[in-house]
Design a protein that fits this description.
The protein has 2 domains: 16-126, no CATH class; 130-222 and 230-261, no CATH class. Strand 1 (44-48), helix 2 and strand 2 form a beta-alpha-beta unit. By secondary structure, it is an alpha+beta fold. The chain contains 8 helices and 6 strands; from the N terminus they run H-E-H-E-H-E-H-H-H-E-H-H-E-E. The longest helix has 24 residues, at 128-151. The protein is 41% helix and 9% strand. The protein starts with 21 loop residues before the first helix and ends in a 34-residue tail after the last strand. Strands 1-2-3-5 form a 4-stranded mixed beta sheet. Strands 4-6 form a two-stranded antiparallel ribbon. It holds the Pfam family Peptidase_C11.
Length: 275
């Protein structure tokens, strides 16, 4: 089933009053599925957004229970958008196109089109089942890190954790204006954040906790089934917006889920107000 629709406005369209938060978007999709009478556990084969910055930890966290594959851009999307001319609902022998092949046909045609125009278009295809597993493992490792930040504020161990976040932040600093144009407060690539966390805490964390972090990193890499990449910027497919705050980093704050129906903790975006 192919559904093309629009949700709200954006900060560039003059419709800032119609911006939708992640939870509003998730609830709208959930409501549409229920209103259509779809069975319990229904998932779209492919969720895709021909829009800027949608391949993010927050967006995927909010929507992963509604799809099998996700296609989006970690960075800005040009005005021309994606190349939809390559879409084929069936293969040459008449068989239905798989969700992954469907997504890849859009991604590869779009990348080829933009390269022909000497432009750049970063697109990622994410396995939402693997992302769900990743977030559960990541949440478990973050609980341990959060406890360290809350109980050992001035220790060398905590300094290493903070250093990891700073290195992930610095890795994109020279590229942020061209890739994100200050639309996000402080975008950081998720894969590089995990890489720096592992490197900084490798000799400090108990082996069991380190294994949990490494498992999260492995699952993240497995969840990115396609990414066209770029030699000019350190990107892996999904970004996260890290706000500058004096209190413990918001990624280390476990979300409260008491008032959320149908979502477990791993499905909750870390910032409900980010849109």
């Amino acid at each position: 089933m192919y559904v093309q629709t629009e949700f709200g406005g954006d900060s560039q369209s003059g419709q800032s009053g119609s911006l939708m938060a992640h939870f509003s978007l998730e609830q709208a999709i959930r409501g549409g599925i229920n209103d259509a009478g779809m069975p319990d556990g229904f998932r779209f084969d492919l969720l895709s957004f021909d829009a800027c910055l949608m391949s993010s930890y927050e967006v995927i966290s909010a929507l992963s229970s509604h799809g099998h594959c996700f296609l989006g851009s970690e960075t800005l999307v040009s005005g021309a958008g994606w190349d939809w001319r390559s879409l084929r609902p069936t293969t040459r022998d008449g068989k239905p196109t798989t969700p992954l092949d469907y997504a890849e046909s859009i991604a590869r045609a779009t990348v080829d089109n933009h390269m022909g125009q000497q432009g750049v278009m970063n697109l990622a295809i994410v396995d939402l089942h693997k992302q769900r597993e990743f977030r559960k493992a990541f949440a478990a490792s973050q609980r341990s890190l959060a406890e360290r930040l809350n109980t050992c504020v001035e220790t060398y161990e905590v300094d290493r954790i903070r250093t990891a976040y700073q290195k992930a932040d610095d890795s994109l600093r020279a590229h942020k204006e061209s890739l994100f144009r200050q639309v996000l407060a402080n975008p950081v690539d998720m894969g590089h954040l995990l890489h720096h966390l592992e490197a900084e805490v490798e000799r400090l964390m108990p082996l069991e906790e380190l294994d949990t972090l490494r498992e999260a990193y492995r699952l993240y890499n497995e969840s990115i089934v396609y990414f066209n990449g770029s030699d000019s910027a350190l990107l892996t497919g999904v970004h996260v917006d890290l706000l500058h705050e004096r209190k413990p980093h918001r990624l280390l704050q476990i979300a409260h889920v008491d008032d959320v129906i149908g979502l477990d903790e791993a499905d909750i975006p870390w910032s409900r107000n980010h849109s």
